[in-house]
Design brief:
The protein is α+β, with helices and mostly antiparallel strands. Helix content is 19%, strand content 27%. Helix 3 crosses helix 4. This is Lipoprotein.
Length: 278
Amino acid sequence: MLSAMRALGLSCLFLTACGDIEDEAESIGVLDLETQASGLAGTYTLGDASLRFTSREVESGIVDVVVSVHGLELTAIVDTLSRVAEIDGFAAGGAETQIVARDRELLAAFVAALADEVDVEASLAASTLHRVSSSWSQTPDTVPLQRSVAAQERGWSSICSSYNKYLTATHDDSNYDAFSPNSSSYAHVGHRAASTYYHVNNKWTTTVQDHKAYLYEYGACYGNCGSGCPGGSQTLTLDCLDHDQCVRNGHALASLWCDDEFVSASDDEFFAPKCSGT
């Protein structure tokens, strides 16, 4: 059950937040896909950059994902039945490395292209590739690539029922605790818009705000576990809402102050169910 501090129960506080906002058409690169018996493989090219990928169901419910980007090899073994995953990443020759900004940019574009051109829910291999790649596209420089992701029973708090309502979202950092006014916002869950909008001085702006107390905010599928807005239904959870709030209010995506929110949201992104009708 959501904390009483979070649930506002408002379906659409400001009319301007409820209108459809057209996204500008933009290139999503070229996805070259080969469907195999156990999964899929292929390449994705955007301008001069490209990546390679495979995703195979090696045993019932167990998916092996490999994505190669800028000389970085990203791997994941995801057990969707036990809801545990082992992920890793290394440079050519096996040297340790990290995901950096240009890797995240290409991975985010790949995730968008995959969602746009493939029914990512058509197979377990496709769904897992999309979820894991989306997580990599948001991985901060300071989070180790080699780590385990595990979801215990009720390992996430779904907020599907709060779609199109405002909830309190929060983070902590060196200056503020979670639920401090300056680290908390009222976020409109799941609203599809190209950008995040902030209600400041009685008007909406896309100018990113820095720890302004209790702003109303909407857009960019706030609370969705993953990069941007998916082509289909969203995966909406409390941890993903808080991670969005952290990186949209005074911190960059790669900020170490949002590492704990990112790690907490990882099992949600890997395993939480999607919200129908979103």
